[in-house]
Design a protein that fits this description.
- This protein has about 425 residues and is α+β, with helices and mostly antiparallel strands.
- It is built from 14 helices and 19 strands.
- Strands 13-12-9-10-11-14-18-16 form an eight-stranded antiparallel beta sheet, sandwiched between helices. Strands 3-2-1-4 form a four-stranded parallel beta sheet, with helices on both faces.
- Strand 2, helix 2 and strand 3 form a beta-alpha-beta unit.
- The radius of gyration is 21 Å and the shape is globular.
- Keywords: ATP-binding, Ligase, Nucleotide-binding.
- This is ATP-grasp domain-containing protein.
């Protein structure tokens, strides 16, 4: 066993994959919950074996840091979005712990500071205006754009999983969307500024770019593309995320842009998950997380490519701890063994789940995994965000080519809706 340990902050979603992989290297892991993950709905119960920052340390960062020092913590992982800020701070304060640029760390989790940092570094980004928390003074320039026939996107400065992200095309809709963010506690239980962002002009495609960074540079792990639609209420509903081939022409352009984003945000170590829109304007950052891709995505990436952000990070930690020798030559890019997609479940209207979908879906061709989160007899609202979809469930589907994958994904979506009835 190593004489050094790793702390995982808020190990939920994809973050639950870390302990067993690190155990395989003989590395001890310590788990820490924060109430931010509970408030935001990322978890609903305590993590088995985890301490709680608020309950066990009285929300005292000093006590937590002392505890980490006593246990020789030499690496810290953000197990999900709620843990990013605390993870970043601990990395900076723990001796010999790799960390990010300590200048203006908020640029890695506060989207207002994030887009300001991109502009300052000369990285192309969408025009973004902010309304501070508890404020409601909508910029007149934004209203003028709407009256000129343009659409805008409103999102919280601190958020995740498309929660409270709205497409608006009238001044009244804009005011309501801004007030819903600035006048409420928000996903993480504290006030958030509202960002009013230029809508990327059509035709456009949204990509997820997943990377891993070390002091030697940034590595591309995979690129996937989102298929989604906009509901009648202006919410972005994700249908699926499908993996792109590593040699797809767009992957190189997205990778170059992603590396510029990482440099502008001061990312020096660890995984990053980026959502990037691209089209006539070229790549533009939409969202960013200084942590691994969520919803279990790295596990499927590993099955399709033989690597993932989480597998790469655990390998890197083992190298740092002297347990594994660094690879003499780091492979660049990736190749898919087959086509794959994560189908995200959704419903158009409030509906009650009848139960029994998992067994039928698991028997469909190409379905390798079904995670049915909906509970029999429970009523669910119309899907408005990715968090709503995850609350219903998802399926991992594979096929030999894109035509077959499209057919199989459509069949899954059709079958799953048969198990919901109007409430």
């Amino acid at each position: 066993m190593s004489d050094k340990s790793v702390l995982i902050v808020d190990p939920v979603s994809s973050g639950t994959l870390y302990p067993s992989l690190l155990e395989g290297y003989g590395i001890d892991t310590l788990l820490l919950d924060t109430d931010q993950a509970l408030v935001s709905g990322f978890r609903r119960a305590p993590t088995p074996g985890a301490l709680n920052f608020e309950a066990d340390f009285g929300s005292s960062y000093r006590l937590l840091l002392r505890w980490c020092l006593d246990r020789s913590v030499k690496y810290v992982i953000a197990g999900s979005e709620p843990g990013v800020e605390l993870c970043d701070r601990l990395r900076a304060d723990l001796p010999d712990c790799p960390g990010n640029d300590t200048t203006a760390p908020t640029r890695r989790w506060d989207k207002q500071r994030m887009f300001e940092a991109l502009a300052a570094a000369g990285v192309p980004s969408l025009t973004t205006r902010a309304v501070e928390a508890h404020g409601n003074a909508v910029p007149p320039e934004a209203i003028a754009e709407l009256r000129a026939g343009r659409k805008l996107v409103v999102k919280p400065a601190r958020g995740a999983a498309s929660v409270d992200v709205r497409l608006v095309d009238t001044p009244d809709q804009l005011t309501a969307a801004v007030s819903a963010i600035t006048g409420n506690a928000g996903l993480f239980g504290s006030g958030s500024a509202a960002l009013i962002q230029q809508m990327y002009p059509a035709p456009r495609v949204e990509y997820a770019v997943d990377t891993f960074s070390t002091p030697d540079g940034h590595e591309l792990v995979c690129v996937s593309v989102y298929d989604k639609w906009v509901s009648a209420s202006g919410d972005f509903v994700y249908e699926r995320g499908r993996w792109l081939e590593g040699d797809d022409p767009v992957v190189g352009e997205l990778t170059d842009y992603a590396c510029r984003v990482l440099d502008a945000l001061g990312v020096r170590v660890g995984p990053a998950h980026m959502e990037i829109m691209s089209g006539a304007l070229g790549p533009r950052l939409i969202d960013f997380g200084a942590r691994a891709h969520g919803i279990g995505h790295p596990r499927q990436t590993y099955l399709l490519t033989g690597n993932s952000q989480i597998h790469r990070e655990c390998e890197y930690i083992a190298e740092l701890f002297g347990i594994r020798a660094p690879a003499p030559e780091r492979r660049t890019g990736y190749a898919l063994s087959q086509r794959g997609a994560l189908v995200l479940f959704s419903i158009d209207h409030q509906a009650r789940y009848l139960g029994g979908a998992e067994a039928e879906l698991a028997g469909l061709p190409g379905v390798l995994e079904v995670r049915m989160a909906a509970e029999r007899g429970r009523t669910y609202p119309a899907t408005r965000s990715m968090m709503d979809s995850v609350a219903l469930g998802l399926a991992f589907v594979v096929a030999g080519d894109m035509a077959e994958l499209d057919f199989r994904c459509a069949e899954v979506r059709k079958r799953v809706r048969d198990f919901f009835t109007a409430a």
